[in-house]
Amino acid sequence: MAYYLIHLQKGNSVRHYISVILILIFYSGLSAQTDTSKQKNDTLPDRFYLLQKVERNGVTMPEVEIKEVTIVGGGSRSSARKRDFRKYEKLIYNIKKVYPYAIVVRERLNQVNEELKTIESERERKAYLKEVEKDVFAKYEDEIAHLTISQGKILIKLIDRETQNTSYELIKEYRGRISAAFWQGIARLFGTNLKAEYDRFGDDAAIEMILLEIEAGRL
Questions:
Q1: 3-state secondary structure of 1
Q2: Cα angle at 210 between 193 and 67, to 5 degrees?
Q3: Average pLDDT of 156-174?
Q4: 19-56 burial, b if ≥16 CB within 10 A, otherwise e?
Q5: Tens digit of each residue's pLDDT (9 = 90 or more) over 99-134
Q6: pLDDT band at residue 51, thresholds of 50, 70 and 90?
Q7: Contact (Cβ atoms closer than 8 angstroms) between residue 117 and residue 35
Q8: Residues 158-173, mean pLDDT to the nearest whole number
Q9: Are 19 and 10 within 8 A, CB to CB?
Q10: Which residues contact 76 (CB under 8 A, 6 or more apart)?
Q11: Are 163 and 121 contacting, i.e. CB atoms less than 8 angstroms apart?
Q12: How far apart are CA 176 and CA 159, in angstroms?
């Protein structure tokens, strides 16, 4: 944590504070924990539907509940519509910017957890995690530090989507409860919430729709 505290003392912009928090989240998600007996199901798929048997008119058939779908149309060309469309285009841009990082966290988290299962020596495990840390900072620190606040908020949501763990949970699990509480306090001061959960059928429906288009290769 000392590394981040030094950075906090050197800068005072909102964006700088947020970038420091994002780097910590990103590292926590990639470095994994040393006790594999407590590992979480970070890579379990979240997109599945539960079929239920429903009887209608004497016939039993499998049914699945279909959630509300958000549809974006052309509509009128009023200035308000144009502003909404520009906001939507900006959202697409921001999602495309940070989505690859959420994927990296998910894949590397799984990779590191699998690797730790094969390492019995505590000394070797610590050495391995040190190499992971070095690799993470070398590859991603500069990129993550230049994300905007809006992009950072989206990344926090997408990390929860891809790993089924909030950023707060990742920091608590891999850095400790005190560290998680400290950084949550800093985040809240600047309008960010490390406990934010991804809600694909609610507040994040537009993000989910864009992601599905990206994953299908249409965006």
A1: coil
A2: 85
A3: 86
A4: bbbbbbbbbbbbbbbeeeeebeebbeeeeeeeeeeeee
A5: 998 898 888 878 877 888 888 888 888 888 778 777
A6: low
A7: no
A8: 86
A9: no
A10: none
A11: no
A12: 19
182 has pLDDT over 90: no
177 class by beta-carbon count within 10 Å (0-12 exposed, 13-18 middle, 19+ buried): exposed
d(CA 103, CA 95): 12
> Measuring CA to CA, how many Å separate 160 from each of 3, 99, 104, 199?
25, 12, 13, 10
Structure tokens at 161: 């989507």
Joined tokens for residue 84? 């909404």
Predicted pLDDT at 49: 53
What sign results for the dihedral spanned by CA atoms 100, 2, 111, 158? negative
**CA-based nearest residue to 183, from 172, 174, 197, 196:** 172
Q: Which residues in 184-216 are b (16+ Cβ under 10 Å) and which e? A: bebbeeeebebebbbebeeebeebbbbbeeeee
